[in-house]
Amino acid sequence: MWHKMLKLTFGLTLAALMSASTPMNDYAVRVQELSYQDTSSGGLMIHAAYHVKNPSTYKVTFELFHTIDDADPILLKAEKYPSGVESDGVFCDYELSATEVGKDNAFTFAITTTDPSYISEKKTIHYHPSGEKYLEVEEKHNHEPLDSGYYKEAYTLLHGYEISQDYFIFDNFEETVVEPVYKYFDIRRFRFSYYNSKGKTLKATCRFDFYDAFNLFPGFPIHEETMFRSIPLTIYADRDGYYHFAFASHLYYQPTTYQSSLICEEGYRETSLLYFPKRYADQLNDINCLINIDVDSFFDYNISATFSLKYEKKFFGHCTDSAYCIESEMDYGNNVKEHVVEVEL
Amino acid sequence: MILLLVAIWGLLLGGVSLVSSTVYHSIDHAFTSLNYALPDLWVVTDVEGELEAPLYDTYLVETTSIHHLSHNLKGVIDRYQIGFYYFDAETMEEVKGRYVSGVRLSLRAKVPFTSDYYKAMNYLITETNYAE
Question: Which of A161, A246, A268, A330 is most exposed, with minimal Cβ within 10 Å?
């Protein structure tokens, strides 16, 4: 069940990362302790302790969740750390009555901060009233900016003394993606590296979503969560070991209008690119897009990269802002062998 | 009596002139407004390659032009002649084939009580300074 909760709460928006400033070195926040104790009334006292240094640098939120059996997590307590207070061993206690304790209980203490480059932590303990030994699972999620345009994310799972780690480096994900001309979008432009501490290959389900503000892409389904048009993606590795995205199946486009579709309609051609309809370059020059990666690793988690898609110029249009244009002129000559069609109305 | 006949003759001439002028302008408007239809008629023959230069599809140019003119001239005249001449936009030399970078369109139509309408326009697909 805790897997499910992680998935719910673990989404990361790369756009937020990219707008972040350099992390403050003297800023720190971490979980120190998470434990429980039987109470005299038959209930349970949950005890969490955490450490905060320089809390005013970023907003910090502490949340204590309780998951009974396979139900959805219940938020027991949430605290926003008061600005300016620095402390070691701050407590967050919560008492459950005997009726609130289930057969299989999981308590998760999560820290999230607005500092996009610092560690976010979750710690989970399991409690069984039957007296089974509890299992402690600690998840750490660390993402930090590398050099300009480079970002890395690491996911760590501590399961007893065993450590598993996923490590991603996204080296050309930008907040704004600028294509040279308005014509089509090639999703294969993105690349990333992936390492797993157990040497496992990457298993993930991915999709590309984009906001269709003018309803110009009716050939693609709308994702029920984002309400964006959605195209399933697949991942492939290139010769250098980098991973890339590609559309999971062929797309189709109408060759004269450049209308795109996931379904092959009459007169459409197969393509691996997302074509943009002609004449709408002005309307489609700032498209909100999202790449979603549901990673199936030692635990399930989600990475979501948002970006804005823009174009430097139109492919075809006015001669002042397009790569190609039409020039027209009166022709006063009459000495060409033209092909003449007589039309009767 | 003579004055009356002169007045009627004048009115007839004025009416004929008005009709001729209206028909002429309708034909001219139909022809010059092809300007707005032609920018959508480009295609790229090898779309999966690099950004290849767009070209006119001659079949598309002919069908679209005839459809556009017929739609706009129905009820104005009863027939017209449209001429197509295809050329390379850089060399201006004639090109035979389906995909071209230049097209010359000419329109000829009879206008009642006056000389025929005749006009020709060249449309050239050109690479701008913005192209890579």
Answer: A161
- Third-level CATH fold of A1-145: Immunoglobulin-like (2.60.40)
**Is B131 an interface residue toward A (CB < 8 Å)?**
yes
C-alpha distance from B25 to closest chain A C-alpha (Å): 17
CA distance A280 to B85: 30
Domain ranges in chain A are: 1-145, 174-324
Contact between chains at B51 and A183 (C-beta distance less than 8 A)? yes
pLDDT tens for each residue of chain A, 345 residues long: 333 333 322 223 332 332 333 333 455 666 767 777 778 787 888 888 777 666 566 677 788 899 887 788 899 888 776 555 566 667 778 888 888 888 778 888 887 777 665 556 777 777 776 554 344 555 555 555 544 445 566 666 655 455 677 788 887 888 889 988 899 999 999 988 888 878 888 999 999 999 999 999 999 999 998 899 999 999 999 998 899 999 999 999 998 889 999 999 999 999 999 999 988 999 999 999 999 999 888 777 788 888 899 999 998 888 888 999 999 899 988 788 899 999 999
Question: How much is the pTM?
Answer: 0.64
CA distance A183 to chain B (A): 9
Distance between start and end Cα atoms, chain B:
77
Is B43 an 8 Å CB contact of chain A?
A: yes
- The maximal CA–CA distance of chain A, rounded, in angstroms, is 108
Closest chain A C-alpha to B121 CA, distance in angstroms:
5
